[in-house]
Structure to design on (297 residues):
């Protein structure tokens, strides 16, 4: 029997193939409830990872996710959502999957077992970056290659796994281990393990973006207003933070080319758009810092 917990049989679901559909749903939901509790147990390590990523961002560094199969796809998903959510460059958070972009849609056999492929893919890393390797079992040679290359350039490393015996846990600088227990279907780590990974990735990017000033309170002040829904959200954000009507918020956004922070500063501090942009730049783009400094005067 494998000693990898993600391969164990789940005693609670041995009869799942003969259960009524509603009972299958109940069993899966019961198992999913355990995921958030397991993630909670790793809260200290997740917080350390967020602080590390934010520190490297402020140095001009980037965040890279590396994974194979489901883990690789989740990394790419999280990375792809950062530019529209936080108006950052697509280069700032990147996802790399074993086997290349084609592996996003179709399995590339053997890619996760290729140490040299991992080393090659990780040659994009520098000493300013953070490399996060993601794997439920934590044993793909591809990821060990990534970590080896990261060490060569003094790149910070984080491992996310669901197996305390993971080999990547032995090589990474920081380890986030969330043991969610056996899957509903033995070995199908796209289920509970995948859910845990998605939750952690959400925290890493959201938390680090918060730390570098990409939000104000819990408002998404750096979103890219590229469609009607997001433009409506931008108007509501400016109106609520600046304490003005929706029509006044819209007017400020149109003048600022839909830059939410610029519009807010221009309204609250009664500045023209260019001056508002300059003030934001002086304060590192952090709206709270600018408002606290200027309004205290």
């Amino acid at each position: 029997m494998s000693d990898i917990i993600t391969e164990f049989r789940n005693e609670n679901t041995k009869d799942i193939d003969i259960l009524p559909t509603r009972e299958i749903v109940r069993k899966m939901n019961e198992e999913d409830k355990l995921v958030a509790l397991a993630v909670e147990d790793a809260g200290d390590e997740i917080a350390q990872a967020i602080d590390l990523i934010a520190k490297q961002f402020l140095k001009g560094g980037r965040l890279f996710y590396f994974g194979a199969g489901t883990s690789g796809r989740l990394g790419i998903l999280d990375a792809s959502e950062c530019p529209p959510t936080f108006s950052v460059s697509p280069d700032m958070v990147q996802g790399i999957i074993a086997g290349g972009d084609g592996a996003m849609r179709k399995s590339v056999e053997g890619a996760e077992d290729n140490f040299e492929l991992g080393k090659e893919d990780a040659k994009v890393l520098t000493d300013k970056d953070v490399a996060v390797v993601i794997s439920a079992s934590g044993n793909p040679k591809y990821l060990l290659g990534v970590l080896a290359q990261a060490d060569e350039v003094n790149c910070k490393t984080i491992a996310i796994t669901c197996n305390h015996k993971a080999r990547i846990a032995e090589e990474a600088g920081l380890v986030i281990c969330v043991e969610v227990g056996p899957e509903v279907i033995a070995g199908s780590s796209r289920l509970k393990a995948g859910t845990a990974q998605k939750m952690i990735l959400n925290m890493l990017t959201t938390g680090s973006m918060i730390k570098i000033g990409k939000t104000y309170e819990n408002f998404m002040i750096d979103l890219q207003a590229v469609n009607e829904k997001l433009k409506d959200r931008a108007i509501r954000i400016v109106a609520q933070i600046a304490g003005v009507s929706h029509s006044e918020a819209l007017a400020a956004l149109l003048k600022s080319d839909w830059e939410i922070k610029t519009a807010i500063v221009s309204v609250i501090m009664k500045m023209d758009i260019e001056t508002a942009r300059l003030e934001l730049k002086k304060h590192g783009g952090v709206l709270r810092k600018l408002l606290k400094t200027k309004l205290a005067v």
